[in-house]
Specification:
The chain has 310 residues and is α/β, with parallel strands linked by helices. The chain contains eight helices and 14 strands. It has helices spanning 6-20, 70-81, 102-109, 119-129, 204-214, 243-249, 259-270, 279-286, and strands at 27-33, 38-44, 50-54, 59-61, 66-68, 85-90, 112-116, 145-147, 152-155, 158-164, 173-177, 180-182, 222-224, 240-242. The structure holds fe (ii) ion (FE2).
C-alpha cells in the first residue's frame, strides 16, 4: 500500500531517516488533562529549541460557563523553562470534547495556528447547526495555516509531514514529526481500540481506511494518541504506543480485522455512546480557531445550545 500512496511513502521515508539519525528525532512531553481525558503535546527540536504545541486544552466549567487556564499554563511553564520557541500551534481536528487553548497560547508564546484544510467542511456543517450567521467565515480563515495531505513542514532541523486521516471527522489530520506520529482521534491504546465515527461528517469506513493507512507506516513508528480512557483491567493512563503493537493487539483494528467487521462493530458501538459533555461549547468555539463567539452588546460571549437539532 505504501508504494501507491505518495504521501505515505514520503512519511515512511522520513520516519526511516529519523530512526537512523538521532538528530532528526524530536523531544516530546505529554500533558494529560483528566477532566477531558485529552493529551496535549509539546514537541521540540533539541538542536534549535523550535517547538510545536499539539491539541491544547482550555479548562471549561460548563455549569458556570467559566474558562480557566490551569492546563494551558502548565504548557506555558514547560515551554518557558526549557527556553523553547513555539513555531506551530497544531490542532489534529476540531475537537468535540474540549475547547482549544491555542489562541491563549498564541498570545503568550507565539506560533502559527494550524489545522487540516477540510475544516471548511466542518465549519459548513456546524456553522449551519449553530445558525452562526454570515459574519462567521467558513473558509478556514480563523487559522493561520491549513494543512493538506502529504504537506511537509519543519520543526527546526526536524522534518514533519501531515497526513489527512478522515473518519472521526472529515478534517482529521495526523502529524508526523521525525519518527513520531501524532494521530489525533483515529486510534487509541490497543486495549481500548478506536475513536467514534458518528459525529456529523464522520464515517466508520473512512476511519478504518485512515487507521490502516497509518498502520502501514514502519513497525517501530512511535504513535502518540489524543485521548486515553484507561481500559478494563488497566489502572494507569497511557498515550504512547507503536505501529507494531497496534497491528498485533488493537482490539478493533489489529491485523486480520476486515473493513466490514470494523464498520459493523464501530457503528453498533457508536449507537450506545452518549454525546460528549462539552460537545456544544467545544465545537462552537473550536471551529472559530478556539476563539469565543463575538461578545454581544453587553460585552459577554454566549455559547448556544441547539435544542432538538442533533
Ligand atoms: Fe475528537
Amino acid at each position: 500500500m505504501v508504494g501507491h500512496d505518495v504521501a505515505l511513502q514520503a512519511a515512511a521515508e522520513q520516519i526511516g531517516r529519523a530512526q537512523d539519525e538521532k538528530a532528526l528525532r524530536p523531544s516530546i512531553a505529554g500533558f494529560f488533562d483528566e477532566a477531558t481525558n485529552t493529551v496535549s503535546y509539546v514537541v521540540h527540536d533539541p538542536a534549535t529549541c523550535e517547538a510545536a504545541i499539539i491539541d491544547s486544552v482550555l479548562d471549561y466549567e460548563a455549569a458556570a460557563g467559566r474558562t480557566s487556564y490551569g492546563s494551558a499554563d502548565r504548557i506555558v511553564e514547560y515551554v518557558n523553562s526549557h527556553n523553547l520557541k513555539v513555531t506551530w500551534l497544531i490542532e489534529t481536528h476540531a475537537h468535540a470534547d474540549h475547547i482549544s487553548a491555542a489562541p491563549y497560547l498564541q498570545e503568550k508564546l507565539g506560533g502559527k495556528l494550524a489545522i487540516g484544510a477540510e475544516i471548511i467542511r466542518v465549519q459548513e456543517v456546524f456553522g449551519k447547526l449553530f445558525n452562526a450567521g454570515t459574519d462567521f467565515e467558513r473558509d478556514g480563515s480563523q487559522f493561520d495555516h491549513l494543512f493538506t495531505d502529504g504537506e511537509k513542514f519543519n520543526l527546526g532541523e526536524i522534518e514533519g509531514i501531515a497526513l489527512h486521516v478522515p473518519g472521526h471527522t472529515p478534517a482529521d489530520m495526523a502529524f508526523i514529526i521525525g519518527d513520531a506520529a501524532f494521530v489525533g482521534d483515529t486510534i487509541f491504546m490497543p486495549d481500548f481500540g478506536t475513536a467514534r465515527a458518528d459525529f456529523p461528517g464522520g464515517d466508520a469506513r473512512e476511519l478504518f481506511r485512515s487507521i490502516r493507512r497509518l498502520l502501514s507506516l514502519p513497525e517501530d513508528t512511535r504513535l502518540f494518541l489524543c485521548h486515553d480512557y484507561k481500559a478494563p483491567g488497566r489502572d494507569e493512563y497511557a498515550w504512547e504506543t507503536t505501529v507494531g503493537q497496534q497491528r498485533r493487539e488493537n482490539v478493533h483494528v489489529k491485523d486480520g480485522v476486515s473493513e466490514d467487521e470494523f464498520v459493523e462493530m464501530r457503528t453498533t458501538r457508536d449507537k450506545t455512546l452518549a454525546m460528549p459533555n462539552l460537545i456544544m461549547p467545544s465545537v462552537q468555539v473550536n471551529i472559530r480557531g478556539g476563539r469565543l463567539p463575538e461578545p454581544e452588546d453587553n460585552g459577554v460571549s454566549y455559547i448556544k445550545i441547539p435544542v432538538n437539532a442533533v
